[in-house]
Amino acid sequence: MLTAARRLRRNGHHVRVMADPAMRPEVETSGFPFVTWRRAPTGTAADPVDVSNIQDFLRRAVFDPAGLYAADLRDEIERMPTDAALVLDALFGGTLGAEASGVPFALLSPHVSLRPLPGMPPVTSGLTQPETPEERAEIDAANAKQAETINEFLPHLNRTRASLGLAPLADVFDLFDRADRLLLATSRAFDFEADALPDNFRYVGPLLDVPTWSQSLQAEAWRAPWPVASGRPRALIACSTGAQGQHDMFQRMIDAMGSLEIDALATAGPNLDVADLRAPKNVHLTRGAPHDLVMKNVSVVIAQGGHGTTTRSLINGLPQLILPIGRDQAANAARVEAKGAGLQLPPSASEADIAAAVSRLIAEPQFTLAARLIGEAMKADIDRSGLVDEMEAIAAAGRAARQLSKRLSLRKSA
User: Fold this and answer.
1) Which pLDDT tens digit goes with each residue over 78-103?
2) What domains can be seen in the chain, in order of their start residue?
3) What share of the chain is helix, strand, coil (3-state, %, to 5)?
């Protein structure tokens, strides 16, 4: 979101950011006015750590508070003249608030599409591009199951819509069609191919500015932990920044490196305590490091498959071993493997299986070649991103509508 905000600001637009209070330092350090939610939940109440029961998670995080997010966003839009809104795709309440306010709005997907697309597997399935009638049937069944799961909340969503003066929907995912634009912050070269794309759908390329906390790491004189003249392959083991109960899996990733003739750096992230982990002699364990710099000095990445790490690895031409746990990780792993740029294993994989997969990625050059090809396409998409053009187009419509309304109001007064 902040990458998008910076691009809009560089083009002369005034941007303010509405987000969780925990994000205030990052937003204000980036130089944007910060607005917080007032009625809507924040912190872990807004994003529960436990996602073992997906229906309960959707109810608590998405649908129950949707009306509160909508009211907060609508109040903010009424408080200050607003030509357009950019809303995170998973924030359904924000979508309702933008629609109810009457301003043009876009949804931003910082991952593969949450909206189901014909012929493409749903984001949480981990399925690959269909090549046979049987695989197509499997994908159709997975999409139907996803629709059944999400549409259990349709009556609740429509009650919230009615309270905001909005027409009911026939399907929860029709919410995505209410947006003027659906902006997918990934590369088409990375994604699977859908049978067709909605009229409001746009690929705008990855949005990968380095956050300020990472910039501080890069500003320091970061020194590689491995011997300069060792001549051995190097690996980055990157733990997700999200809390997903990944301690045991991350430990197995680290332990697996002990059987290989490589040097490795393991970054534990904010949700694991380095003191609770152990590392063999050839693995340097740290809480964090500037991945953009580290990736210039390694030949393989081992990670959970979040969109940011996956995309950065490809842009740096690095093959990946992905052990997905949740969220969009299985979808990213499926794409990396299908396109020949890496391998995936289940989160329960043994040390031996992890070591064997890493050995393949280092020894077999086709993985690196595929990663470089996708990475070059991604870099081209970043350079020609249409995000600013798309937002300017809907903002111009918003300004024109507001000016027309003002003129009509003056005529009535006269």
Assistant:
1) 999 899 999 999 999 999 999 999 99
2) 2-207+386-413 (3.40.50.2000), 227-381 (3.40.50.2000)
3) 50, 10, 40
Q: Read off the pTM.
A: 0.87
How far apart are alpha carbons 202 and 345 in whole angstroms? 31
d(CA 204, CA 7): 12
Which residue type occupies 322?
I
CA-wise closest residue to 191 among 356, 392, 334: 334
The pLDDT tens digits of the residues spanning 363-383 come to: 999 999 999 999 999 999 999
Which of 41, 48, 4, 3 shows the shortest CA–CA distance to 19?
41
Residue closest to 106 by CA, chosen among 34, 241, 242, 207: 207
Residue 27, CB-side half-sphere exposure with 13 Å CA sphere: 17
The DSSP result for 233-265, as a single string, is: -EEEEE--SS-SS-HHHHHHHHHHHTTSS-EEE
How far does Cα 69 stand from its chain's mean position? 20
Q: Which residues contact 309 (CB under 8 A, 6 or more apart)?
A: 238, 240, 291, 301, 303
CB 51, CB 76: distance < 8 Å: no
The SS3 of residue 360 is helix
Strand locations in 11-58 (E): 17-19, 34-36
